[in-house]
Specification:
The chain is an alpha+beta fold. It contains 2 helices and 10 strands. The chain has a single domain, classed as Sandwich (Immunoglobulin-like), CATH 2.60.40.200. The structure holds 2-acetamido-2-deoxy-beta-D-glucopyranose (3 copies). Keywords: Signal.
Length: 129
């Protein structure tokens, strides 16, 4: 029993170090997602070793000023516009700027969707530039 635990911990540490060593964005690296239906973009830029900025805007298709029922789904994490403090000015949302702790290398290829209630109204993949 004890032996098994030790092996599992070692494997975890090895995987973690392996992932951190290989996947670091450099400051200034950029990534973006394009929303065709909503004529919008989300742009990400690594601004320090530990944080990245987001700039986002949706130019059409946001028809109700209800930030509690529009959501962003990033790789399965669903956050409302209200929680992100994204302002709506129908038919637009944003522009919105924010800073998030993290590394944009981990966002490369991530799925991002915009939802109205439970319906996906647009989606895209984040691509590193
Ligand atoms: C998309 O939004 C931009 C900025 O508001 C605008 O200039 C452009 O005409 C829009 N394109 C479409 C296809 O609606
Ligand atoms: C949300 O945005 C408003 C207007 O820009 C600002 O006054 C407020 O401090 C923001 N709140 C948060 C939690 O970022
Ligand atoms: C948001 O970010 C964009 C692009 O980095 C910048 O041009 C703009 O001035 C910023 N706006 C605000 C309100 O911080």
């Amino acid at each position: 029993m004890l032996k098994t635990r030790c092996i599992a911990l070692f494997a975890f540490i090895f995987t973690y170090l392996h992932a951190t060593l290989l996947c670091r964005a450099a400051v200034g690296d950029k990534a973006a997602a394009t929303f065709n239906k909503l004529n919008g973009t989300a742009a990400f830029e690594q601004i320090t070793e530990d944080a990245f900025s987001i700039y986002g805007v949706l130019n059409k298709g946001i028809d109700e000023n209800e930030p509690d029922i529009y959501f962003i789904d990033l790789s399965g994490d669903r956050i409302s516009f209200a929680e992100f403090n994204i302002s709506i000015n129908p038919p637009k949302a944003g522009p919105w700027n924010g800073t998030i702790i993290g590394d944009i290398e981990e966002l490369n290829g991530a799925y991002i969707a915009i939802l109205y209630d439970d319906s996906t109204i647009d989606d895209a993949f984040i691509v590193k530039e």
